Amino acid sequence: MQITIRGHHLTITPAIEENIREKFAEMTKHLDQVNSMQVKLSKDHQIDKHSKKGSANHIAEAIIRLPGIELFAQATADDMYTSIKKLTEKLKRQLHKYRELQMEHTPLLA
């Protein structure tokens, strides 16, 4: 499985890259059909007028390509690690739903 990690307006540190690879490997360990995954991390430099601080300005997006389908999710938070965690939770729900649909459409062999 190929994981592509890109950064937009920020540098991908080895710690962030390892965090992503660890979470995505855990999430897809029971799913052999994953062709590729793309993760895009970005930082929005807008400033909140009230607190003079960027609010929810760390953005994590991912596309998981499976045979015949693409799953997409996006999450934002004040911290990149939190946005990555939210992103993986959203993708886990989508993958769980995908697996359930696959099980419903797969006939059981006697």
What tags apply to this protein structure?
Ribosome hibernation promoting factor; 110 residues; HPF/YfiA_ribosome-assoc; 4 strands; 2 helices; Double Stranded RNA Binding Domain
The rounded Rg comes to 16 Å
Q: Indicate the proportion of strand residues.
A: 25-35%
CATH class: Alpha Beta
Order of helices and strands: EHEEEH
User: Mind telling me the CATH superfamily name?
Assistant: Ribosome hibernation promotion factor-like
Helix content: 25-40%
**Mean pLDDT across all amino acids:** 85
Overall number of domains: 1
State the low-pLDDT regions, or none. none
The total of beta strands comes to 4
Q: Quick one: overall form? A: elongated
GO biological process, one term: negative regulation of translational elongation
Family: Belongs to the HPF/YfiA ribosome-associated protein family. Short HPF subfamily.
Protein name: Ribosome hibernation promoting factor
Keywords: Translation regulation
Q: What does this entry look like structurally?
A:
With 110 residues, the chain is of the alpha+beta class. The protein has one domain (2-105): Ribosome hibernation promotion factor-like (Double Stranded RNA Binding Domain). The chain has two helices and four strands, in the order E-H-E-E-E-H. It has helices at 14-27, 80-105, and strands at 2-8, 36-43, 58-66, 69-77. It has a four-stranded mixed sheet, covered by helices on one side. A hairpin with a 2-residue loop joins strand 3 (58-66) and strand 4. Helix 1 (14-27) packs parallel to helix 2 (80-105). The radius of gyration is 16 Å and the shape is elongated. The mean pLDDT is 85.
